């Protein structure tokens, strides 16, 4: 059976260029970048070269770019560090109600610890906008966290406008850009965010490596203690092999920008054919700005868990939503917060694409859906 992978928002397959770059390092070098001898210095030089590559890809100074174990660590670090430093005069935190679990659940944890946190509800299209922020904004609001691209719906939030609003109001702004990296063109210097989180395995790089951009590194307390790695911001020996893979993935995906229209064609064809095949089908967020890499589609009257498993048995991998929330069998918090009908929420599947997907895979998926849902 030839398998089809349409769950690229959960993780992407590593491309051969990344595998080869990591293999070369793992078979020839092994030094700890904190060591002063020859092996350590080779590792240090390669690590800093990779930092420059990825920082340049994002358009930020490399001295403000720090490696982590992934998006979840980065989001936890930023939220918990900021919350610990807020003053009584400015202590209010706003979090989008549609955030990834690593932000949303961290916010819930901090709220239980006494942090003053409110959640921003989306508008009718599922967007988090300045208008929505102003509904819950207070004079003592100090920090706002809003994702760039929603990991379930693919909806693109107006992050530049939000960043400008935060700057005018002297509010620190964090953006989880894990699903935006390599899929939405942006220059961090133009956006002027205070914190930004990215991850390698969403752009065909390795798992367990990510990074954060911190505009003023001296203002953020370390999340991990016990070493002076990452300029004293994060203790622990750096994952040099993973960082090399991250840098190579950034170069690879940057070279694919011109092919983004191809992915858009796949998405458009997929959604148009679904509407022809199924009268009740709902493309979630269809009227909002969206990335071409995610289509969340509902088939009212169809159980999404059952359909997912039947597709998998036929060799097609999709998901019911966020990979970090899978296995809970609970309806999607994101879709519920968008005030969608229950039969839409419980019948929604996420199909997420990459530069590696082909039109024949879309055709096969449509053929299977037609058989399984009829």
TrEMBL record:
InterPro entries: Aminotrans_V_dom, Cysteine_dSase, PyrdxlP-dep_Trfase, PyrdxlP-dep_Trfase_major, PyrdxlP-dep_Trfase_small
Cofactor: pyridoxal 5'-phosphate
Catalytic activity, reaction form: (sulfur carrier)-H + L-cysteine = (sulfur carrier)-SH + L-alanine
Superkingdom of origin: Bacteria
Keyword presence, Transferase: yes
Keyword Chaperone: no
Coiled-coil ranges from the UniProt annotation: none
An example Gene Ontology molecular-function term: iron-sulfur cluster binding
SUPFAM superfamilies: PLP-dependent transferases
Gene3D superfamilies cross-referenced by the UniProt entry: 1.10.260.50, Aspartate Aminotransferase, domain 1 (3.90.1150.10), Type I PLP-dependent aspartate aminotransferase-like (Major domain) (3.40.640.10)
Keywords assigned: Aminotransferase, Iron, Iron-sulfur, Metal-binding, Pyridoxal phosphate, Transferase
Domain spans labelled Aminotransferase class V: 4-363
Similarity comment: Belongs to the class-V pyridoxal-phosphate-dependent aminotransferase family. NifS/IscS subfamily.
Protein name per UniProt: Aminotransferase class V
Source lineage: Bacteria, Pseudomonadati, Calditrichota, Calditrichia, Calditrichales
